[in-house]
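Long-time lurker, first post. I've been practising inverse folding by hand and with some scripts of my own, and I keep getting stuck on stretches where the structure tokens seem ambiguous. Below is the full token string for one chain I'm working on. Before anyone asks, I'm not after the true native sequence, just a reasonable design that respects the backbone. If someone could post their per-position residues I'd love to compare against what I wrote down in my notebook.
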């Protein structure tokens, strides 16, 4: 007789009731949880790691990108256009000694952070707001009422399963996990192809003063470095698949943050982190490339002669995976024309940054910014669910701009307000007016102002790096 395999978990489970459940503790999830809790909501946050930070910390993206406007003038000072929760988080990071002054990134600026300080600031803000945080909790199932209403989620922990029932759920997983589990409409990249992941790392033992004297203040390395990478890669002395690399001084002495790997499959495919085997291959290949780039830097860059790899991301950095089908979709044209919306809840001036091939391609929006409407975070179908973070509804190129950290702080800030309003007033998320959320954000210092109607102003100047 054939044996019978019984799937079981006989550990006791725990049930939690919340007004708002937040899945994922990245920039968007932290901002959403803190904001909703500040509005008097009982909030539970589930995070699969033992710390918050998401792509910024586990993926070690390491920067708060998207705060500043771009300019063609090399002498233009940083002009900040994103405020609100991002300001508060950055201020606390700075007070902890965990944030640099603005660092040049091509035509714009960014802030580089210490990942340990990021975790500790998030811990403090969540605790102060009264958020119930459960670390090492992997969401495995969406709780559904009928065919449409998301009533919370179930998570795996070492203790056993947790069943969190919530009036409203915020999917801040980065991968639209809850939306997909609930069977709602989602998309993946451009016809299923996503931007390649990157294994980011930190290089210690650097004479940063000599490095900057040789390379200048721009974190995007110049053509001489790119040409050298192409030369030594072609010679077979190194295996360096990406020629244009980004190296940022960090708040720590003697350290550079290195965004330079290009992780593709052995068969040449762009690896998709939604596929278990692709994700595994990306981790292994990413670590191999880290050693090659670190060796190249030691051999060829002034100030890096005695450098060594201090750490890599806990996981490979994911730029794109799954997104929701929203009530509204942020279009490529919205980004490139600097479109403004009366229902917008966030701004962005970050370039379209597409990672494929030997050189990332950048398309800059100069002396302008675009706005992201609230409706991009509301699923077309399904009830009692909002999303925050990079799984917003957006076209492929638009997503390559809208996904970065400063904007994710803004999204979470807005969606935390929307969640609290929906619960308190017994409203469906799609019945909430984005203009109402915009006004609440301005009350928190977001400085969005009012827009009388949807319009496009100015234009985007396209500057693509050579392919």
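-- Answer (accepted) --
I ran through it position by position. Result:
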């Amino acid at each position: 007789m054939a044996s019978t395999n019984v799937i079981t978990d006989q550990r006791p489970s725990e049930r939690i009731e919340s007004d708002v459940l937040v899945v994922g503790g990245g920039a968007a999830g932290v901002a959403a949880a803190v904001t909703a809790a500040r509005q008097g909501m009982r909030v539970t946050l589930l995070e699969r790691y033992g710390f918050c930070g998401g792509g910024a910390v586990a993926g070690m993206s390491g920067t708060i990108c998207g705060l500043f406007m771009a300019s063609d003038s090399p002498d233009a000072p940083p002009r900040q256009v994103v405020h609100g929760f991002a300001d508060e988080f950055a201020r606390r990071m700075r007070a902890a000694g965990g944030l640099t002054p603005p660092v040049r990134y091509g035509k714009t600026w960014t802030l580089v952070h210490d990942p340990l300080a990021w975790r500790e600031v998030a811990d403090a803000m969540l605790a102060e707001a009264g958020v119930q945080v459960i670390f090492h909790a992997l969401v495995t199932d969406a709780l559904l009422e009928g065919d449409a209403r998301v009533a919370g989620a179930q998570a795996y922990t070492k203790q056993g399963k947790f069943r969190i029932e919530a009036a409203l759920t915020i999917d801040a997983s980065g991968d639209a996990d809850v939306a997909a589990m609930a069977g709602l409409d989602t998309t993946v990249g451009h016809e299923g192809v996503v931007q390649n992941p990157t294994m980011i790392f930190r290089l210690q033992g650097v004479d940063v003063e000599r490095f900057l004297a040789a390379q200048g203040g721009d974190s995007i390395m110049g053509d001489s470095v790119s040409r050298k990478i192409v030369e030594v890669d072609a010679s077979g002395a190194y295996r360096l698949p990406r020629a244009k690399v980004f190296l940022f001084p960090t708040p720590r002495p003697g350290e550079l943050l290195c965004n330079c790997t290009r992780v593709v499959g052995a068969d040449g495919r762009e690896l998709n982190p939604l596929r278990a085997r692709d994700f595994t291959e990306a981790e292994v290949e990413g670590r191999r490339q880290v050693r090659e780039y670190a060796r190249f830097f030691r051999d060829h860059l002034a100030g890096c002669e005695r450098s060594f790899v201090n750490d890599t991301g806990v996981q490979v950095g994911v730029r794109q995976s799954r997104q929701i089908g929203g009530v509204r979709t942020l279009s490529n044209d919205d980004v490139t024309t600097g479109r403004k919306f009366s229902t917008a809840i966030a701004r962005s001036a970050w370039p379209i940054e597409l990672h494929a091939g030997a050189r990332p391609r950048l398309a800059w929006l100069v002396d302008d910014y675009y706005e992201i409407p609230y409706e991009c975070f509301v699923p077309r179908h399904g009830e009692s669910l909002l999303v925050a973070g990079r799984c917003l509804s957006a076209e492929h190129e638009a997503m390559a701009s809208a996904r970065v950290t400063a904007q994710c702080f803004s999204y979470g800030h807005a969606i935390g307000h929307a969640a609290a309003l929906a619960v308190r007033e017994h409203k469906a998320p799609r019945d909430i007016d984005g203009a109402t959320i915009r006004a609440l954000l301005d009350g928190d210092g977001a400085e969005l102002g009012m827009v009388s109607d949807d319009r496009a102003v100015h234009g985007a100047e396209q500057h693509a790096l050579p392919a």
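A couple of notes from the structure itself: The longest helix spans residues 276-300. The radius of gyration is 22 Å. Happy to go over any region you disagree with.
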